[in-house]
Task: inverse folding
C-alpha cells in the first residue's frame, strides 16, 4: 500500500500519545514532502521529543498511524525503522561513550555491512575489505564535519558542539532518507550555530535528505526551514512558512508563555 | 592476511602446541614435568577459554551472566557422554580407539563439537527470554539455570549422578586445551574487530542509541550469548575428560561461575588480554599460596581475598582496563588523512553566513 500523496515521505496521521494521564501528543498530523527542511517547534514540554520517539519506534502511538516512504510503521522496532531509513540525533547526546569518534561512525554503518559473523570469525578477505570500506567511509563522514583529526579520540572527550556534529555524522552513516535532528544547536555558541545552519542545508542537498528539525534557536529554525509546524502542549497550533509562523498570533501567544 | 600466510600461521601454532603437548604430557629425554604443575598448566588453559568466552557476553556486550558453570556443565556432560557411550564406535570408523592416535583425534573433535552444540542450545533457550528484557533478568535467570542443571545432573544415573561422571575417559591433553584456548581468543578477537563486535559495544554503551542506528539489540545479545555458552561447553568437555578430574555437579556450581567472573573483572572487563591474565593469575595464585597451608591452615584464602581486594583498590578497572596488548601499543597512532577531494561542509565559514539575520531570540 502506498501513501496517498506520492511526494510525501513522512505522513503522520492523527497520532496521539499518552503517558498515564498526560497526553504528550494530541492528534498530530504532519506531512513532510521528500527533500524538505521541515521545522518542528514549540515551547518546553510541547511534545517535540516525544514525536521523534514515536517516529523512531521508541514509543508506540496510543492512537493513529505513521507512514514512512509508503510503509506503515506500526509495530516496528526502532532498529527496523532505522533500516527503512529514519535516523536521528538525541536532545541529550547519546554517543557510544567508550568508543572513539571513528568507531561511533563505523558502528552506525551497521546496516550497510553484510553482518556475516562467520566471515568476521574466520577473518575472511571479504570481511577485511568490508572493514576497510567501513573505515574509509567513516573517515569521509568525519571529514565532512571537520572531525577527522579527532578520529581516534574518545567520543566523549570532544567539546559539546563537536559531539553534536559527531551525532549528526553518526546518523548520516546509517544512510537515512529522513534525518531527525533534536536541538542540534543546543549548547553551541552563535558562530557555531550559524555554521551549523549552513551544514544542515549542505548535507540536505549533498545527501538528498529530508530533514525534520527540532530547535529552540529561532534564528536557526527561521533561517533554514522551508515549512514549520508548531505544537504546544501536544496540540498543533500552526503550520506554514517561516514568515507565516512569525506572524501567527497563536504562535506568538504560545511563545510568550500564556498558559 | 593472505590465505597462504594464514595457513602457515595455523601450521606453526599447531606444531608449537604439539611440541608443548609432548613436553608436558610425556617429557623430553630425562626431563619429566611435575604432574602437579602439568595439572595447573591444564587448568590455566581451560580457565582461559572460560574467561575469554564469558568476556564476550559480560565484557563486550555488557550483559551480566552468572551461569557460565552451568553451560560448562551442559557441554562437559554432553561431550563426555558421547565419548563414554559412543567413543569406541566413532573411533572404530577410522579403525582406532578413543585413547590414541587418529581415533582419539576424531573422538575428541566429535566430543567437543557435541559439547559446544549442547551448551549453545542451552544458551539459546536461556538467552531468548531473558535477553529481550532490560535490566538484570539475565543474571537471575542464568543463576537459576546453573542450579537447575546441577539438580538435573544429580538425577541422571547414566552420567554418574552425585558421584560424578567417573566413567569418563581421560582423552583431554595439553594440545587440545591450548588449541581450544587459542581458537577462543582468535574467535573473540575477530568478533571485536567486526560489525558484530561494534554492535555489541554499542549495546553495552547505549541500547537506545544502538537501536536507533539499526542494531537489532536482542538478536545480537542472543548470538553473543550462544557463542559464549558454546565455548564454555567446549571448556566443559575438556575439563570433564581431564585425567583424574571427573565431572562432578559439586565442582560446577555457582561458585565456579563467580570464579570466572572474578577472572575477567580482575583482568579488566572487556579486555581479552585481561581475561587471559586474570584466568592465569587466579588459577596459579591459590596454588602458589598453598605453601602456607602447613603452618597456617586457612591463611591461604585470607591472603587470596586480600590480594584481590588490594588489586581492586589500586586498579579498579582490572589489570588491563579495556585495553588490549597489541602491536599498536608500540606503533604511533596513525591519524588517517582525510581523502583528497572530500567535500567539506561549510563549517570553516562560521560567522560569514549571510541568511537568517532575523532575531527571534533563543525561544
Ligand atoms: N516517557 C515518558 N513518561 C512520562 N511522561 C513523558 C515521557 N516522555 C515525555 N513525557 C512528557 O511529555 C511531555 C512532552 O515532553 P517532550 O520531551 O516531548 O517535550 P519537548 O517538546 O521535547 O520539550 P523540550 O523542548 O524541553 O525538549 C512532557 O510533559 C514530558 O514530561
Ligand atoms: Mg525535547
Result:
Amino acid at each position: 500500500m502506498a501513501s496517498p500523496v506520492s511526494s510525501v515521505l513522512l505522513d503522520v496521521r492523527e497520532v496521539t500519545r499518552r503517558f498515564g494521564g498526560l497526553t504528550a501528543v494530541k492528534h498530530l498530523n504532519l506531512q513532510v514532502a521528500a527533500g524538505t527542511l521541515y521545522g518542528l517547534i514549540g515551547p518546553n514540554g510541547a511534545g517535540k521529543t516525544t514525536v521523534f520517539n514515536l517516529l523512531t519506534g521508541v514509543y508506540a502511538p496510543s492512537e493513529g498511524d505513521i507512514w514512512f516512504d509508503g510503509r506503515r510503521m506500526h509495530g516496528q522496532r526502532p532498529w527496523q525503522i532505522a533500516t527503512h531509513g529514519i535516523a536521528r540525533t538525541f536532545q541529550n547526546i547519546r554517543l557510544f561513550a567508550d568508543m572513539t569518534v571513528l568507531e561511533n561512525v563505523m558502528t552506525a554503518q551497521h546496516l550497510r555491512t553484510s553482518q556475516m559473523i562467520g566471515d568476521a570469525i574466520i577473518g575472511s578477505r571479504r570481511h577485511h575489505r568490508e572493514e576497510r570500506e567501513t573505515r574509509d567511509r567513516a573517515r569521509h563522514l568525519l571529514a565532512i564535519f571537520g572531525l577527522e583529526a579527532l578520529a581516534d579520540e574518545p567520543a566523549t572527550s570532544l567539546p559539546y558542539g563537536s559531539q553534536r556534529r559527531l551525532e549528526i555524522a553518526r546518523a548520516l552513516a546509517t544512510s537515512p532518507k529522513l534525518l531527525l535532528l533534536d536541538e542540534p544547536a543546543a549548547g553551541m555558541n552563535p558562530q557555531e550555530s550559524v555554521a551549523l545552519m549552513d551544514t544542515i542545508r549542505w548535507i540536505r542537498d549533498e545527501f538528498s535528505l529530508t530533514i525534520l528539525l527540532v530547535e529552540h534557536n529561532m534564528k536557526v529554525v527561521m533561517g533554514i526551514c522551508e515549512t514549520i509546524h508548531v505544537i504546544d502542549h501536544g496540540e498543533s497550533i500552526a503550520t506554514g512558512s517561516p514568515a507565516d509562523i512569525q506572524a501567527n498570533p497563536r504562535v506568538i501567544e504560545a511563545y510568550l508563555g500564556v498558559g | 592476511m593472505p590465505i597462504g600466510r594464514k595457513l602457515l600461521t595455523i601450521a606453526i601454532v599447531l606444531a608449537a602446541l604439539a611440541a608443548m603437548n609432548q613436553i608436558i604430557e610425556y617429557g623430553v629425554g630425562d626431563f619429566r614435568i611435575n604432574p602437579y604443575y602439568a595439572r595447573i598448566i591444564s587448568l590455566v588453559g581451560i580457565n582461559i577459554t572460560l574467561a575469554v568466552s564469558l568476556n564476550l557476553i559480560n565484557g563486550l556486550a555488557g550483559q551480566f551472566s552468572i551461569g557460565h558453570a552451568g553451560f560448562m556443565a551442559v557441554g562437559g556432560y554432553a561431550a563426555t557422554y558421547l565419548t563414554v557411550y559412543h567413543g569406541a564406535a566413532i573411533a572404530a570408523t577410522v579403525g582406532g580407539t578413543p585413547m590414541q592416535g587418529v581415533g582419539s583425534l576424531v573422538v575428541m573433535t566429535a566430543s567437543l563439537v557435541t559439547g559446544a552444540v549442547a551448551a549453545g542450545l542451552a544458551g539459546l533457550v536461556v538467552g531468548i527470554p531473558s535477553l529481550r528484557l532490560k535490566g538484570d533478568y539475565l543474571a537471575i535467570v542464568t543463576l537459576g539455570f546453573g542450579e537447575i542443571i546441577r539438580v538435573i545432573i544429580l538425577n541422571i544415573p547414566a552420567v554418574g549422578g552425585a558421584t560424578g561422571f567417573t566413567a569418563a575417559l581421560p582423552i583431554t591433553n595439553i594440545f587440545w586445551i591450548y588449541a581450544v584456548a587459542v581458537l577462543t581468543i582468535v574467535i573473540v578477537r575477530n568478533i571485536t574487530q567486526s560489525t558484530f563486535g561494534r554492535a555489541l559495544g554499542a549495546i553495552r554503551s547505549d541500547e537506545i542509541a544502538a537501536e536507533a542506528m539499526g542494531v537489532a539489540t536482542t538478536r545480537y545479545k542472543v548470538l553473543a550469548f550462544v557463542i559464549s555458552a558454546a565455548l564454555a561447553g567446549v571448556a566443559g568437555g575438556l575439563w570433564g575428560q581431564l585425567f583424574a578430574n571427573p565431572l562432578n555437579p559439586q565442582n560446577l556450581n555457582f561458585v565456579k561461575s563467580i570464579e570466572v567472573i572474578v577472572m575477567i573483572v580482575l583482568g579488566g572487563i572487556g579486555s581479552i588480554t585481561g581475561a587471559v591474565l586474570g584466568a592465569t593469575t587466579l588459577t596459579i595464585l591459590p596454588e602458589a599460596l598453598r605453601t602456607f597451608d602447613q603452618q597456617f591452615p586457612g591463611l591461604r584464602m585470607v591472603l587470596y581475598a586480600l590480594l584481590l581486594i588490594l588489586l581492586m583498590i589500586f586498579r579498579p578497572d582490572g589489570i588491563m582496563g579495556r585495553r588490549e596488548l597489541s602491536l599498536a601499543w608500540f606503533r604511533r597512532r596513525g591519524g588517517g588523512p582525510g581523502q583528497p577531494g572530500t567535500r567539506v561542509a561549510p563549517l570553516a565559514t562560521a560567522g560569514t553566513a549571510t541568511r537568517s539575520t532575523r532575531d527571534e531570540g533563543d525561544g
